[in-house]
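To illustrate the input format used throughout this study, we show a single complete record. The first block contains the structure-token representation of the backbone; no residue identities are included at this stage. The design step must infer an amino acid for every position from geometry alone.
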């Protein structure tokens, strides 16, 4: 009996139970074409940068498995037409895969189940299969979820490294006819053509397992940067001790940079948790080592919340438990506001700096994500889902539960009331010398501290005046007075 092993969101060797099978197996990653080339709310679902990172990360994993005598078929296609055909042509009798989180991810599981038995393994959660919570009893607040688990928290054990079993066969070995062999060879050729059409990212390293493990262990034991994580995580970029930005090429240390690898399943979240615990046992812990685990629990909560509420979390009013700001203005004005926000041309320096950083790097700090979301929802009065869809398009660490869950959280569309942020107050608190702003907005570089001032209708944001917004909200006045005093008495 041949088993099809779907390795979607499981691009690693460590802690990967999907690679521990019995009998004849075939390994497949089937990327849904519509999830990269389709659109939602009129927004293309993946930028060229995100698509290229995904494809080349997968290609690296394919080559890694090939060196271990595990052939992997990689396909970017329409699963509705291709998967049933593969199951029939290759004589597949069962499918095993990573357990989905969102309904859209679950469609692949449901499609396969129409033809053969399907089993799944929750290998990307901290709690795993044996410790999974009951969805009906999942607390409405993260605090309650955390408090219920922290006193006696258990994390499922990681599987042994490189523990690959089973007899792994290539697609052509399993094909029944010359026609099916030809089709499979064509799929493999099309994959290589897709790679050529999507150049490998040069400035942004791939989130491969080997690189991410080495980087995280260095973060723990060499730089020991984890010990200041709680403070530095609020930075928008890496800063040297003198408050300047370090030279290019230096590995940033203001955050853990785990999110991209975790979102693709190229790093085991349980392995990460256990590395932190081991550090605490050998060198001691502090509030920052705890806080990184705290953030991993947030990620875990969003995954279970997505499983519980499903597509409700994609509605404009969400769960309907709290007020969600309604979009304001006619559609033409809303589209203009959104376009300027997407381009980093709103006229609010901190918002624009974070958006431009995202466009260039495919990432944004946690603090930055909250601030630009708040500005889109509460200052520009736009539908929060437009921002979530744009983040899905741009983020290399896009994860359906974390991205849409966080946006719903800021908007009040989830289980908690929404959160508004005063942009100028946040800028003065977390970028006091305007180092980050000036690094991303070169047109403001010479202004020094004055770069914090909203610059609506200036040369730096020539289109921002069309937003029909005042240069600053009334609640910014105290922060403006503080800034003006600093400019007058440096």
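Output of the design step:
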């Amino acid at each position: 009996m041949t088993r099809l092993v779907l390795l979607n969101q499981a691009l690693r060797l460590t802690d990967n139970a999907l690679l521990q099978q019995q009998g004849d197996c075939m390994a497949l990653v089937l990327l849904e074409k519509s999830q990269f080339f389709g659109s939602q709310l009129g927004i293309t679902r993946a930028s060229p940068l995100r698509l290229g990172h995904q494809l080349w990360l997968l290609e690296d994993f394919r080559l890694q498995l090939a060196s271990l005598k595990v052939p992997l078929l990689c396909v970017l296609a329409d699963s509705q037409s291709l998967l049933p055909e593969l199951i029939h042509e290759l004589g597949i009798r069962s499918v095993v895969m990573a357990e989905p989180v969102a309904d859209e991810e679950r469609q692949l599981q449901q499609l396969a189940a129409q033809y053969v038995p399907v089993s799944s393994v929750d290998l990307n959660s901290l709690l795993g299969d044996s410790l999974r919570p009951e969805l009906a009893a999942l607390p409405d607040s993260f605090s309650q979820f955390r408090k219920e688990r922290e006193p006696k928290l258990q994390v499922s054990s990681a599987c042994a490294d490189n523990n690959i079993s089973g007899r792994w066969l290539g697609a052509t070995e399993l094909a029944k006819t010359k026609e099916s062999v030809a089709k499979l060879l064509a799929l493999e050729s099309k994959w290589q053509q897709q790679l050529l059409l999507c150049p490998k990212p040069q400035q942004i390293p791939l989130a491969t397992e080997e690189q991410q493990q080495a980087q995280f262990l260095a973060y723990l034991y060499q730089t020991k940067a984890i010990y200041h994580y709680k403070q530095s995580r609020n930075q928008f970029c890496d800063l040297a001790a003198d408050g300047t930005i370090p030279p290019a090429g230096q590995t940033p240390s203001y955050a853990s940079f785990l999110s991209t690898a975790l979102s693709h399943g190229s790093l085991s979240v349980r392995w990460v948790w256990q590395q932190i615990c081991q550090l605490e046992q050998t060198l001691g812990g502090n509030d920052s080592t705890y806080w990184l685990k705290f953030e991993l629990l947030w990620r875990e909560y969003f995954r279970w919340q997505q499983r519980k509420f499903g597509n409700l979390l994609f509605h404009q009013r969400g769960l309907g438990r709290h007020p969600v700001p309604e979009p304001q203005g006619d559609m033409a004005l809303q589209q203009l506001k959104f376009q300027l926000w997407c381009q980093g041309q709103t006229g609010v320096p901190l918002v624009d700096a974070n958006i431009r950083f995202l466009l260039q790097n495919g990432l944004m700090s946690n603090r930055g994500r909250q601030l630009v979301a708040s500005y889109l929802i509460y200052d520009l009065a736009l539908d929060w889902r437009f921002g979530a869809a744009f983040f899905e398009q741009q983020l290399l660490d896009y994860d359906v539960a974390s991205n849409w869950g966080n946006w719903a959280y800021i908007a009040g569309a989830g289980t908690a009331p929404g959160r508004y942020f005063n942009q100028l107050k946040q800028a003065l608190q977390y970028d006091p010398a305007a180092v980050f702003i000036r690094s991303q907005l070169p047109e403001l570089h010479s202004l020094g501290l004055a770069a914090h001032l909203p610059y609506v209708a200036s040369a730096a944001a020539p289109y921002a005046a069309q937003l029909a917004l005042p240069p600053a909200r009334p609640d910014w006045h105290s922060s403006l007075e503080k800034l003006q005093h600093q400019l007058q008495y440096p």
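Structural context for interpreting the output: The longest strand covers residues 20-32. The radius of gyration is 24 Å.
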